[in-house]
Amino acid sequence: xxxxxxxxxxxxxxxxxxxxxxxxxxxxxxxxxxxxxxxxxxxxxxxxxxxxxxxxxxxxxxxxxxxxxx
Length: 70
Description:
Elements: H1 4-12, H2 23-39, H3 45-68
């Protein structure tokens, strides 16, 4: 996994589609869903950590972007 889109497709394999219209909220919900899948031992630790890193970087980027636009 290298992109948010790939994470969305990965989650879709488990029947999870997330879209609430707020980019940061979407990313945070994806992070929570990944955590649930990991704790249930449905996904590999490497996939979990890679996806988590990508999501957290994008959340940080979006928050910084939102602050600049204020």
